[in-house]
């Protein structure tokens, strides 16, 4: 029996068209896609698919946490009707959405593939069609029980991926984890890297957009920056973006005091590195050891996107006393064990 895929068109460059103001999202993607496929040799070999288009398309630079609730709700509402899912999404925040979906859809037993493009499908020369066709083929497989990004022939674990290039066609990679597969002359899967199918434990919460903030360190950072970020009582989590192996400017006593005070108030602070490869070894240097004394959680090799979304997800679904323990556990392959 031919497998049936739900394509969710959420917006993004893949479905945009040129306007006087630049590329803009436009409705009617399914008609344009099917017209394109009628002109494509071998399209009959593709899995059957249906297209669900959001009423309000998202320019990914305008993504908000409530969009994750909407997208997760759509997928779970249709979970039993389809063999796999393909989410078309803008590239700027694609890794955030893929990461969040991986946390919301834990225990999944079928593929959720996220893709988009750097050049719209409407353009004569584009990467949209290849990304979409490769993603459809991966979504039709029964051996990928996780959320992935498929882009430029690479199949990446969604919560390990980041957009590394602003305009190149190979925009996405997973610097700290191997590719799960690739679409070249043949479709290849590295099954030894894939998660195992599980029992669905889906949680689609509502999010407080103020609950998590990102605090990057830089030479000369003032304690006032942290104080202003943390002054909002709605803030319950901080992703601290530090140097190297997780080193903050610990000579800045006022800044360290702000972090200490926040932890004492019950704010969860997770430390990740600004480096693309490697991980936080909090305490390898004396500066990092300061964070251990304060009670900051080492985020190991979490990407910024995964750290931000995981903290958001846990704060929205777990009692406060469980968040710290779960942040240091790999829930769905997002960090080294």
Automatic annotation (TrEMBL):
Residues 4-192 form the L-asparaginase N-terminal domain. GO terms for biological process: aspartate family amino acid metabolic process. Keywords: Hydrolase. The keyword DNA repair does not apply. Gene3D superfamilies: 3.40.50.40, L-asparaginase, N-terminal domain (3.40.50.1170). The active site is at 13 (o-isoaspartyl threonine intermediate), 91. The keyword S-adenosyl-L-methionine does not apply. Substrate binds at residues 60, 91-92. SMART domains: Asparaginase. GO terms for molecular function: asparaginase activity. Residues 212-318 form the Asparaginase/glutaminase C-terminal domain. Pfam families: Asparaginase (PF00710), Asparaginase_C (PF17763). InterPro entries: AsnA_fam, Asp/glu_Ase-like_sf, Asparaginase/glutaminase-like, Asparaginase/glutaminase_AS2, Asparaginase_C, L-asparaginase_C, L-asparaginase_I, L-asparaginase_N. PROSITE patterns: ASN_GLN_ASE_2 (PS00917), ASN_GLN_ASE_3 (PS51732). Its EC number is 3.5.1.1. Belongs to the asparaginase 1 family. This is asparaginase. It comes from Amphritea atlantica.
């Amino acid at each position: 029996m031919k497998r049936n895929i739900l394509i969710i068109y959420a917006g993004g460059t893949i479905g945009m068209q040129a306007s006087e103001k630049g590329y803009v999202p436009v409705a009617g993607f399914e008609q344009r896609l099917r017209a394109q496929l009628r002109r494509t040799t071998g399209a009959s070999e593709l899995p059957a698919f249906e297209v669900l288009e959001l009423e309000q398309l998202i320019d990914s630079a305008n993504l908000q946490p409530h969009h994750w609730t909407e997208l997760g709700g759509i997928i779970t509402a249709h979970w039993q009707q389809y063999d796999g899912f393909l989410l078309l999404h803008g590239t700027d925040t694609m890794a955030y959405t893929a990461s969040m979906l991986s946390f919301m859809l834990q225990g999944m037993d079928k593929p959720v593939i996220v893709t988009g493009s750097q050049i719209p499908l409407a353009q004569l020369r584009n990467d949209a069609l290849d990304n979409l066709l490769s993603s459809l083929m991966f979504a039709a497989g029964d051996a990928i029980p996780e959320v992935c990004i498929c882009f430029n022939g690479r199949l990446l674990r969604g919560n390990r991926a980041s957009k590394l290039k602003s305009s190149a066609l190979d925009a996405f990679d997973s610097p700290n984890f191997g590719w799960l597969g690739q679409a070249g002359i043949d479709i290849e899967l590295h099954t030894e890297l894939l998660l195992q199918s599980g029992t669905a434990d889906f949680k689609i919460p509502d999010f407080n957009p103020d609950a998590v903030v990102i605090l990057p360190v830089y030479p000369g950072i003032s304690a006032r920056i942290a104080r202003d970020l943390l002054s909002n009582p709605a803030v319950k989590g901080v992703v601290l973006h530090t140097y190297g192996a997780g080193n903050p400017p610990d000579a800045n006593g006022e800044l360290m005091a702000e972090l200490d005070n926040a932890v004492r108030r019950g704010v969860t602070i997770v430390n990740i590195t600004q480096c693309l490869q490697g991980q936080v070894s909090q305490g390898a240097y004396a500066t990092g050891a300061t964070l251990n004394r304060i009670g900051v959680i080492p985020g190991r090799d979490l990407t910024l996107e995964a750290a931000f979304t995981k903290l958001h997800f846990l704060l929205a679904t777990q009692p406060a006393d469980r968040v710290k323990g779960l942040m240091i556990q790999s829930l769905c392959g997002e960090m080294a064990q």
